[in-house]
Protein: Cellulase (Glycosyl hydrolase family 5)
Organism: Chitinophaga jiangningensis
Amino acid sequence: MYKSSTFHVLLACTVLLFACGQGERTIWSKEKANEWYASKPWMRGSDFIPSTAINQLEMWQAETFDSATIDRELGYAEGIGFNTMRVYLHHLPWVADATGFKGRMSKYLEIAKKHGISTIFVFFDDCWNDNPASGPQPAPKPGIHNSGWVRDPGSAIHTSPKLADTLETYVKDVMTTFANDDRIVLWDLYNEPGNSNYGNQSMELLQKVFHWGRQANPSQPLSAGVWLPSLADLNKFQLENSDVITYHNYNDEHAHQEAIDTLRKFGRPLICTEYMARTRNSRFDNILPLLKKEKIAAINWGLVAGKTNTKYAWNDPKPNGDEPAIWFHDIFWPDGKPYDSTEVNLIKSLTK
């Protein structure tokens, strides 16, 4: 366990020296970004957390890291032709034990590679519950979507300015450790900046994490996905600083096509890192064929229904725990049975 301040000072110095020695790289040219994308197969998969974890902390803390479930559930993904997972990290398990945390990342990557799956890692996140805390995580609230998901770092970044020093060391340590790991396809630096009514308060951390990422200078591209058109300042920064463009869209095929047409104007590869909410008419049958036709990487939210409760819709809670008439997200039950076998057969027809 590495908890001493001396360790973190030494680690920070090491990472900063590495970054200074490498120099801060600029954004990839459009040509480089498109060459990189052309070298990849069509990426398709899910945002992934094992069904036994309620949030990122339960996934990554040593006491609850569940490699057996990860192995089994990535096998479900492999079985339907998925080859890419988007996976959220969290800085608190790294603070508790940086070496152990990176070891668990390596273990995850080893399991994913066995199943022919590459990984998009996500650093920060403005969604759901504030004030994350290490240790045992709460039980799911019946019928409540993502009842235990936690932000990273949450509002503490606005009240504890020194937290940024810890986050800088964390990002650079993780990114330099895996800077040339071909099992990682992309670093997604910040999920939905400005969510939870933060708005432009998230700009400072967004700018910093791009700066830190460029100093770490990994071989993989850097991005942060646009998700809400009204966040004009954040969107502008994200689109101007991402090596490849990532985005979220939970609308039907017509609105999704409009978003694609708008983002194409930037001349960079497109990766959809969140889609598929059945009751919003974002489904596999109307969106996945569109993304394949447009040669856009397709990452839907949710693989296996579990403790995150994402089979329940954002705005339609079932506090009594009743089964929703239509699952919002997710593809499989924990035992591997498909929610909808017709849907799974469609996915297979498009991926194989």
Summary: DSSP finds 13 helices and eight strands in the chain. The first strand starts at residue 44 and ends at 47.
